[in-house]
Amino acid sequence: MSTKFEELISPVDRERFFKDFFEKKHLLVRGGSKTKFHNILKERDIDHVLSSQRLTLPNARMANKNGEIEAKDLVLENTKVMDVSKVIELYAEGATLILSQLQDKLASLKELCDTLSSDFGQRFQTNIYCTPGNASQGFNIHHDTHDVFILQIEGQKKWHIYESPIELAVKDQTFIPGEHLHGDIKDEFILNAGDLLYIPRGLMHAAQTLDEKSIHITVGFMGYTWQDVFQDQLNILTQNDKNLRRGFQPKYWENSEDYQETLDQIIASLQKPDFIVNALNQLHLKFINRHRTVIQNPLKQAEGVSTINLETLLFSKNNGLFKVNVENEDTIVISLYNKDIELPKDYLPIIQFIRATPLFKVKELPLLEDESQIEFSKTLIKSGLLHINFDRQS
């Protein structure tokens, strides 16, 4: 079962998180149970990945007290493939193993990212940090350019939070040692197994491993900002207006008045009443088209299409990961990863039913009759929008 955002931050409620903490300050949530996040990741899951899958740089790397270990000391000769025997050797000597984008290899992490992405309408990713008990090391003080949620899986880690020079750092404000200097310490605490820590982007922090082994997940929230809105909209304006594609003549810096009319034109476009509605919908559509959802047991799903009947149980996983647009008075378009499905506008109540109903039988689809219910279900299963629930079939 996928973990919802509310479950991650419990007992802090959703409204309080977004009012008091989101993009404002860090949040420490005591989990109450060392196994709170074991439905998401266990140590044996990492062992399974290491022993059964081909890990390559830069998504698999290691670091010790001297910094990141060079690639040549980690990989099989003349490849980017991590040598597991070297992982064992370095880990035994106290090095930290870092596995990035592991949601592409572990279904439980993919489920977590999909659930959060469906809720936020924005992308999430994971990094895993594994440090042995004989290593008293950590990562230097720095800030990130995206918000992070730290889920402590095993052991402990000591964290320090500092006053920061950049509030809400964006992508091109990456941390530069020696240039971005931290201020006074704001907080320090030990994160135990089952605890969660939220750190907004730009907030300076550092982590230190203690005597025992530590495993934690860094869930990165790759959220959109106003910068993304204006970049996307300026690209659209440029494609549609040749004046915005014109270049600058010599001595342009001395003749700014020559370009004022074009600037006024851009500003006028941004002030149209429907600008923000269109801009945010286009941003959401971009997210939908780029987000690949995982389909459990795809061959079983495909084989099940031919056996569907009126009693078959169906569900649509992560309903926020498809978008419905009214194309015209006759047609709606459902957008999901890398495809569009055109349907008669009369089918809109059916899609609304699917979105609102976690689990249903084929015969419960509204407006359609028996055979039409079956055929429509087959179409949506083959498109990836609906799935057969094999676990609870009678």
Task: Give a structural overview.
The chain is an alpha+beta fold and 394 residues long. The chain folds into three domains: 218 residues, Jelly Rolls (Sandwich), CATH 2.60.120.650; 65 residues, no CATH class; 91 residues, Alpha-Beta Complex (Outer Surface Protein A, domain 3). The protein is 30% helix and 24% strand. It is built from eleven helices and 18 strands. The strands form four sheets. It has an eight-stranded antiparallel beta sheet. It has a four-stranded antiparallel beta sheet with strand order 6-11-8-9, with no helix packed on it. A three-stranded antiparallel beta sheet has the order 17-13-18, covered by helices on one side. A hairpin with a 2-residue loop joins strand 15 and strand 16. The model has no long low-confidence stretch (mean pLDDT 93).
